[in-house]
Amino acid sequence: MIDTYKHKGLRKQLVINIKQKGIKEENVLAAIEKIPRHLFLDSSFIDFAYQDKPFPIGNGQTISQPYTVAFQSELLKIKKNEKVLEVGTGSGYQACVLIELGAKVFTIERQKDLFIKTKTFLPSIGYRPRMFYGDGYAGLPAFAPFDKIIVTAGAPFIPEALITQLKVGGILVVPVGEDIQTMISLEKINENEIIKSEHGTFRFVPLLEDKADGQK
Ligand code: SAH
Q1: What is the pTM of this model?
Q2: How many domains does one find in the chain?
Q3: Which end of the chain is flanked by fewer CB atoms within 10 Å, N or C?
């Protein structure tokens, strides 16, 4: 693993950049500063790693923009040792941010090639979330309930199973919409009551349904 002073310097700049865009939470900024994002991109694209932009990671998928990763992470208000479910593992970058925030991370990916690639890669740089190949619409009933749930693909609607698998007092953060998504944060007040808040618009790759073997 090569992480040079140049990379570290670029990460410091990236942190300044997303701070200017409104990210405040110190732990989130520290996680972005620590994680070597360039290792999540193919080596030929290393120069793009510390721009505040999403980037293709193969299989038609993207690693989310650092600002978006930080923004969703802030909305989750993670406390140490909380159990967090991520839907849409992708490159694994967001999962690493959650681990740095002290979460016990469970993450699901529906594209087999990407799942296998990330499952091999993350431990090689020292991150070990529990990784599952499957359909995020169903969540992970066997490991529920979760303190927090984050969806990192654009969902046409909020999957009911995810609300069910959220603890009372828990938070679900999910971008909802087809072409453009509204970032929604949902807090489960009690078994029958949720409070929803909206946090601006974003653009994600779609959360795909019913294609568990998903070669799309
Ligand atoms: N969190 C990722 C960004 C993921 S992009 C990162 O930090 O890099 C969205 C991911 O969601 C893609 O990898 C896509 O394959 C996955 N995805 C789409 N629909 C899904 C579903 N129904 N279940 C699980 N993963 C899904």
Answers
A1: 0.96
A2: 1
A3: N
Task: Give the structural domain span for 193.
Answer: 53-202
CA 183, CA 5: separation in Å to the nearest integer? Answer: 35
Which CATH number belongs to the domain containing residue 135 in this structure? Answer: 3.40.50.150
What distance in Å separates the CA atoms of residue 174 and residue 210, rounded to the nearest whole number?
A: 19
- Catalytic annotation, pick one of 64, 73, 91, 185: 64
Q: Is the CB of 170 under 6 A from ligand 1?
A: no
152-194 confidence digits (pLDDT tens): 999 999 999 999 999 999 999 999 999 999 999 999 999 999 9
Distance of alpha carbon 130 from alpha carbon 143, whole angstroms: 11
50-100: pLDDT as tens digits: 999 999 888 888 899 999 999 999 999 999 999 999 999 999 999 999 999
Please check whether residue 38 lies inside any domain of the structure. no
| Separation between Cα atoms, residue 78 and residue 80, nearest integer Å | 7
111 in ligand 1 pocket by Cβ < 6 Å?
yes
Residue 167 lies in a domain: yes
